[in-house]
Specification:
This protein is α/β, with parallel strands linked by helices and 357 residues long. The protein has 2 domains: 91 residues, translation initiation factor eif-2b, domain 1 (Four Helix Bundle (Hemerythrin (Met), subunit A)); 215 residues, 3-Layer(aba) Sandwich (Rossmann fold). Helices cover 41% and strands 16% of the residues. It contains 10 helices and 15 strands. The chain has a 7-stranded mixed β-sheet with strand order 5-4-3-6-9-14-15, with helices on both faces. Strand 14 and strand 15 form a beta hairpin. The N terminus is likely disordered. One of its GO terms (molecular function) is S-methyl-5-thioribose-1-phosphate isomerase activity. One of its GO terms (cellular component) is nucleus. It is found in: Cytoplasm; Nucleus. It catalyses: 5-(methylsulfanyl)-alpha-D-ribose 1-phosphate = 5-(methylsulfanyl)-D-ribulose 1-phosphate.
């Protein structure tokens, strides 16, 4: 994955270069692509690369089965995030529908899947910009209605390096900065894999957004003593009652925000919403290798024999999401989410009822 500046709008963009099978392997302890939207997009685009090279078939039935099997394998790699499962379902359905058309050909099925994957990329970028702008306006109305600047704290990486571009929670910060209303941003290092220190800090510096990196253990002190106006984080899955799964450490941020009386926002595309699950207790939480905690740059620092628990995500209860859930369709209170998304998506002949293939 290469990070390059866009010549058109001076924003940070990600160029993903993949070959056959490269995007269809189960993530290893050192993933090169991360972020729920980016993983879904790279997975689908990797399949597009294979189809462009002539993989699958011969015959329509064999080609559709090839598409479905490849996508089904990829879904198993990321159980907590819903984006990959939903993208896989949509892509597999598109292949099946095209194959059922009168006069269908293998070439037409391949072209349909490739076009759908490219459309997903473009839609994610549009959705991210909407999330950023809607979230920025809502946040300003809540914490600075009479004008002035705000200070925002965020967690993990939710920017161009985790999406098709622009970002979700980091997109809100980006939009606030573009409006001239951002005083400062704080980003956590996000232990143990340090996505905040390695990725978010890079994006903030690249965009010349005033920002400070802090350790995860400093968030309460930062909120108490550094004038933080709001907390904005992303999400890998949002369920029907508004509970959200996000990078581990998010839950404690929500508790800190609640204690200090500042709004806590979750920014995520509607593709991250899974109305099939009623509460966060039903979300499968992925666990990562112990070495992420015991080792630093390949050198063990923890005492041999110590036990390790390393969940990649935690679940934030909906009643702690006091600012709202920011989607490309609007900003909703957790209790409003199900009805709002169901109404909006249904009017567009879509569904958020579950990602099963």
């Amino acid at each position: 994955m290469d990070v390059v500046p866009s010549q058109s709008d001076k924003s940070l963009k990600v160029v993903v270069q993949v070959g056959q099978e490269s995007g269809l392997r189960r993530p290893n302890p050192s993933p090169q692509v991360r972020g729920a939207p980016a993983i879904a997009l790279v997975g689908c685009l990797s399949l597009a690369v294979e189809l462009q090279a002539g993989a699958g078939g011969p015959g329509l039935a064999a080609l559709v089965a090839f598409v479905r099997d490849k996508l089904s394998f990829l879904v198993t790699a990321r159980p907590t995030a819903v984006n990959m499962a939903r993208a896989a379902r949509d892509l597999a359905d598109a292949a099946a529908r095209e194959a059922e058309r009168e006069g269908a050909t293998e070439e037409a099925v391949r072209e349909r899947v490739i076009r759908c994957a490219e459309d997903m990329l473009e839609k994610d970028l549009r959705d991210n910009r909407s999330i950023g702008d809607l979230g920025a306006r809502h946040l300003l109305e809540q914490v600075a209605p009479s004008g002035g600047k705000v200070t925002v704290l965020t967690h993990c990486n939710t920017g161009a390096l985790a999406t098709a571009g622009y970002g979700t929670a980091l997109g809100v910060i980006r939009s606030l900065h573009s409006l001239g209303r951002l005083e400062h941003a704080f980003c956590t290092e996000t232990r143990p894999y340090n996505q905040g220190a390695r990725l978010t800090a890079f994006e903030l510096v690249y965009e010349q957004i005033p920002a400070t990196l802090i350790a995860d253990s400093m968030v309460a002190a930062a909120v108490a003593h550094r004038g933080v106006s709001a907390v904005v984080v992303g999400a890998d899955r949002v369920v029907a009652n508004g509970d959200t799964a996000n990078k581990v450490g998010t839950y404690q941020l929500a508790i800190v925000a609640k204690h200090h009386g500042i709004p806590f926002y979750v920014a995520a595309p509607s593709s991250s919403c899974d109305l099939r699950l009623e509460t966060g207790k039903e979300i499968i939480i992925e666990e990562r290798p112990a070495q992420e905690l015991t080792d630093v740059n390949g050198v063990r620092i923890a005492a041999p024999g110590i036990g390790v628990w390393n969940p990649a995500f935690d679940v934030t209860p909906h009643d702690l999401i006091t600012g709202g859930i920011i989607t490309e369709l609007g900003v909703f209170a957790p209790e409003e989410l199900r009805a709002a998304l169901t109404t909006t998506i249904s009017s567009r002949n879509g569904t958020l009822d579950g990602p099963q293939m």
